[in-house]
Design brief:
Number of helices: 0
Low-confidence stretches: 148-158
Largest sheet: 4 strands, antiparallel
Order of helices and strands: EEEEEEEEEEEE
Strand order of the largest sheet: 3-2-8-9
Shape: globular
Distance between the termini: 24 Å
Mean pLDDT: 85
Amino acid sequence: MLRGTSGFYTYAIYKHLQGWPDFDLLETRVASKLRKDKFQYMAMADNRQRKMPMPDDRKSPRGQMLAYPEAVLLINPIDPNMKREVDDKYQYSCNDEENKVHGWTCTDPLIGFWQITPSDEFRTGGPVKQNLTSHVGPTMLAMFQSEHYSGDDLVPKF
């Protein structure tokens, strides 16, 4: 991001070239990968915010994979207060109706990086569809569900 700017907007225009086969595009994700040495505190809601484990905590020998790759038992994390916790990116999912703002903060310098959802008009999964938000990385996701479209439609409907 450029110095002196307070934010940026993202959008996509998908083109279906003549002669290409039909396709369905049901979801688009915009992922922001932040600096792990800076952004260590994540907030999704007033009651869901915390200092997060480091990405290295999820790898052996600091972490032990559980039943599926996203779930990791923190055996010897960098922050010993997190020992024996389970980290799983699905812990930080929420219903779309509750997904208004989520993001990360940094204390040096004192800045934040936020995903703000101004409206739900682009979402087609309904208010109780769950989506990922932020997770260890530090990673922040913006999930866009589109209406069904295929063929010669040029712009997704989200």
